[in-house]
Amino acid sequence: MPRIIGDTLEEHRKKTRQQLFDALSRLLQTSTFESLTMAKIAQEAGVGRTAVYNHFQDKEALLLAFIAYETGQYSERLNHALAGVSSPIKMLRIYIREQLTLGSSYHLAPGLDLRRQVSNETSSELRLHAQIVENILRQILRKAINEGTLPPQNLPIAISMVNASLAGRSLPKDPIHREYLIHCIQAYVLRSLGASHTLAPLPNAKRFLGRRLDLDDNPFASREGEGMVISACPIHRAS
C-alpha cells in the first residue's frame, strides 16, 4: 500500500504529481528525455515505481502533463503582467521581456528541445501547448494592427518570426547589461514588425552602460567573470 501524502486522496494525488514533475525537471537538467525511464523518474521523485503508473501510463504522458502544467503557470503569469495594459506596443514589450526571461518560469534546462526527443504524436500535442502562448501574441498583434500602430501583416508569419528572434537568446548575467540587451531586442522586434522609430527607440547606451558605443563595439562580448544565461521555451524551439 503506497504511503499517503496529505490529508485526503486528492491532496495525495496532487502532491505525488508535483513530486513527479519536480523529478522530471531535475533529471532533464542533466539527461535527455530519451534516456529516462519511469523507474528512474520514480526513484528521483521518491515514490514507488508502480505508484507512478497510477498517474501516468508512460513517460510521454508524464511529459505532456508536466508541459501542460508549466505552460498554464507561464501563461497565467504572462496574462497577469499584461492585465491593465491598454497600449499594444507596451504589451509587446512585456511579451518580449517575459519570453526572454522564460528560464525563470519554465523549469527545464536551457536549450532543451523536447520535440525532437518524443514521438510524432506527442510532438504534435506539445505544439498545441505552444499555441496557448502564441494565441496571446496573436491577440496583441491583432490589436496593434487594428489600432494602426503596426501595419497589416500575416499573423502566423509574424508570430513565427517574433518567437524565432527570442528563442535561445543568451542574456548577460550582469543586470545592467541584461536590461540594456532586453531594451535592444524590444526595439529590434518592434521595428521588424513595422513600429515607428518613435514607438520603438533604441536604448541609450550611455544611460545603461555609462559610455557611448561605436558601430562595431560589442558590449555583450563575453568577459572573464561575466557569464550568460540562456532562455528558451522547449516546445517553441522547433516550431
From TrEMBL:
DNA-binding region(s), residue ranges: 37-56
Keywords: DNA-binding, Transcription, Transcription regulation
Origin superkingdom: Bacteria
HTH tetR-type domain sequence ranges: 14-74
Keyword Transcription: yes
Protein's UniProt keywords contain Transcription regulation: yes
GO molecular function: DNA-binding transcription factor activity; transcription cis-regulatory region binding
Name the record gives this protein: TetR/AcrR family transcriptional regulator
Species name: Varibaculum cambriense
